[in-house]
Amino acid sequence: MTTEIVKKQPSREEASLDGEGVDVVINGSDLPQVICAASLAGLGYKVLLLEPSETYGGCTSGPLSAALLFGDLDSATDNKHLKGPVRVVANGGNRLTELRSQALANASAFVLELQPRFYFAADAFLDLLVGSGAASYLFFQPVDSLFWLQASSNTVADTVVIDVPCTKAAIARSHDLGLTEKRLLMRCLRSCFVLSSAATEYDPHSPAMDITDEERREMNRRWSAAGDSATLLQQLEEAFASAPSDQQWKRVAALVHDIYAWGIEDMPTAPATWRCSIDRLERFIQSVMRFHAATPFLCCKYGSNEIIQAFARRCAVKGGILAMDRSIMASAACDAEQGPDENGAGFVVETNHGERIFCRIGVISPQHDSNIHVDAKLVLRFAGLTSEALRLGEPGRTNRAATGHAFFIARFNEGALAAASSYSSATLYIWQISSAAGICMPGYYVVYAECDLQRLPRQQVANTESTASALHTFRGMVAHVLRCIAPAACEACDDDVAVLESVFAAYAFYEAPAPPSGFSVQTRDGSANVSVPYSYARMDRIPHAIRQILEHIVGDDQRAASSLDVFFGISPPPEGSS
């Protein structure tokens, strides 16, 4: 199959890449590509990274324009919904004219993210940031608060809202859990800690140190009686069948499973085993203890796109070449003798500028799953600007304000709001990021929300009407959560749009493009495809996939493999290394 080359002359300021000879060509600058580029450049390979747009980050991680929140409502054309890599589904707010003028006049003060993320402190991705040296270019802030909402009906009164306690001291101080619930929670967590594969009596932070080996063996025997395929909830119900109150126990069990053991990962299609869940719970607590923070999550000071910039900088410092407004239009194998020097080339790559680049070792390109229609990967997100933090202000209780960065996780179960629109279950994630992060004007907060709309059957998202229906459901979910966590602001609002406008000065719903499903790696030994699983904020699986991509490039080079271990934070550098 021949790809037509669309020739486009480089601008006068750009240097031509025609005739350039490199070791590896990488197409795009999304997170996997820049990590590969930084790693290979650090190994001494000559790397050329091509980015089709004018900013690093690609279509799945790049920053959004502040104008997204203030759409041109006077325009009657359909093009008003097109904002670069995203499609704006609906604009709202605009009730503060002076704020709109201030925001648009100082657009550089906003770094609205296409894919906002919080990060576990104990995570393979954080280890990669440290091992690679990219962390030296970054500054992280802790996430102050973690809230959990379990929506069991359409009414706000029936929704359970908990300020999640992440430490023993926080559990003792909790205003949301009763004394019996606190005792049950501590018993659950202690049992899980003891059974964790990482638990050891020599770890001063581990509660496993205060039990005998006989007690540990007995606990493991009792939990294993139901089989290793049993889920965590099944094991908890078996182990704590004598709980004094069924309602209290259900709340504690759901909290342990949904938050401590699963964190913010999407619920799996098949329930995970109790051993897997316990290891996730252990990582959650280790993330809290790593920096002795109030929650296990960290927030990048200037947004997730700064992480891509950090890896791009590492690549450049190590001698890599970064070229903007470039993309691969075609690539083909060439003769062994062909190339700019005596080393020859394995491939010749042609760019959208008509340049021919000789590549000696390999080409890395993103791939999209052609078997899944793009509309079947519908992902709607929400971004809003507010002058006050989202807060819990229930009468007679301490006004617990999320004064900085906060994370809200809402589970909509059977009979909840989401069930009315063909969802078997759904999770709404809400990120609140204050101006301390440097992504919005002082005194304001940027709030993001996202829901997994991929649960809908494909035929339900294949047309505009279904997209509108999904937006209606999504807006209702966001409004439902706002009524729970900001009741005073929403008290007089009679519909979902009024709720949003009462809380946010400006907001927009936007449809984000689907990320690549994997990457193709072409080398002289052949080609391979590596899948890269994207999740809302879980990042630990991405380093594993990137390592697979790099192993195809470095082959059997043991020196390179050892250096990759250091880069990914797996092992300390060898003695005598710089």
Domain count: the total is 3
Structural class: alpha+beta
Q: Identify the CATH homologous superfamily of the largest domain.
A: Guanine Nucleotide Dissociation Inhibitor, domain 2
Question: Which band does the percent of strand residues land in?
Answer: 15-25%
Distance between the termini: 47 Å
| Fraction of residues in helix | 25-40%
Main sheet characteristics: 9 strands, mixed
- The spatial strand order of the largest sheet comes to 4-5-22-16-21-20-19-9-10
- Number of H- or I-type helical stretches: 16
Characterise the protein shown here.
Belongs to the Rab GDI family. It holds the Pfam family GDI. One of its GO terms (molecular function) is GDP-dissociation inhibitor activity. This is Probable GDP dissociation inhibitor. One of its GO terms (biological process) is small GTPase-mediated signal transduction. With 578 residues, the protein is of the alpha+beta class. It folds into 3 domains: 155 residues, FAD/NAD(P)-binding domain; 201 residues, 2-Layer Sandwich (Guanine Nucleotide Dissociation Inhibitor, domain 2); 124 residues, no CATH class. 31% of the residues lie in helices and 22% in strands. It contains 16 helices and 24 strands. It has a 9-stranded mixed sheet with strand order 4-5-22-16-21-20-19-9-10, sandwiched between helices. Helix 1 links the parallel strand 1 and strand 2. The two termini are 47 Å apart.
